[in-house]
Design goal:
elongated; 7 helices; membrane; alpha+beta; transmembrane; 262 residues; 6-stranded antiparallel β-sheet; 3-stranded antiparallel β-sheet; transmembrane helix
Length: 262
């Protein structure tokens, strides 16, 4: 049994057991249904395997569509190129998972407050429970906001355009011209992998949102300027990196034929 199957099976069984608790008159078990059911659904959506494309020479011949991403016009007038679209299900998965953990964090906050009031002292475990709950609500609340934003903003993705590479992820946008791009690579492993862009200089790439906030740390410690999770992309990150290197030396080849329309 693979990891994905094991995780989904475990979450399903725990949600079912909590559901039985609700059926027998234990309303608190409903929290377990929400948490384990939400985690299972989130993992199902986020762990969807990518679609492997063809070799780089096939990318411009129907395997990857010509088109654009809405935000690209902010950085270039040549907005039509090869598009690797994102997955809207990614935003749904992030949102569902965030809600599950915010619910769990809220329960921990309430339990911590209850224990603290009962004991009249903010010692362990009441203080620790309250602190962990607040951290969970804060962190996953931000994740939920990003997921909700992505859900309404569109699935995002990566566009290889005549003048550069445009990236639109849930954490923000990135734009780098071909001349400023130093390298692209796949980081992480398996379900936690991501595509990363690295420019010659920090000023050679434009980043927004959370990508901008984390830019100094990512560049100094992890040697990339912007990234997009594999889970957000339909295509395999390795295929997109191959396409970037293939067209890097010949951007005009990405120009669509006259009959193609974005």
């Amino acid at each position: 049994m693979g990891t994905r199957t094991s995780v989904l099976t475990t979450c399903t069984l725990l949600a079912v057991l909590c559901g039985l608790g609700v059926a027998t008159g234990e309303p608190v078990a409903l929290l377990g249904v929400v948490f384990f059911g939400g985690c299972g659904l989130s993992y199902l959506l986020l762990s969807h395997p990518p679609t492997t494309g063809g070799s780089p020479v096939e990318f411009g011949d129907g395997a990857v569509p010509y088109g654009t991403l809405p935000g690209a016009r902010r950085y270039t007038s040549a907005t039509v190129g090869l598009v690797f679209p994102g997955r809207r299900a990614y935003a749904v998965g992030v949102l569902v998972g965030a809600v599950a953990f915010v619910v769990a964090g809220t329960v921990m906050v309430l339990v911590g407050l209850h224990l603290g009031i009962q004991s009249a002292a903010w010692g362990f475990p009441s203080g620790a429970t309250l602190g962990v709950g607040l951290l969970a609500v804060g962190f996953f609340g931000v994740c939920g906001i990003l997921g909700l934003r992505s859900l309404f903003a569109g699935p995002g993705g990566i566009a290889l355009l005549p003048e550069g590479v445009y990236l639109e992820a849930g954490a923000g946008r990135a734009w780098v011209r071909w001349a400023d791009l130093a390298r692209s690579r796949v980081g992480g492993m398996g379900e936690h992998s991501y595509l990363a862009l690295y420019a010659h200089t920090a000023d050679g790439i434009t980043v927004t949102g959370l990508q901008r906030v984390l830019h100094p740390v990512n560049r100094r410690l992890f040697r990339f300027d912007a990234s997009i999770p594999q889970a957000q992309m339909r295509a395999a990150a390795s295929d997109v990196v191959s396409a970037i290197y293939h067209y890097w030396g010949d951007p005009p080849s990405m120009q669509p034929p006259p009959e193609a329309h974005p």
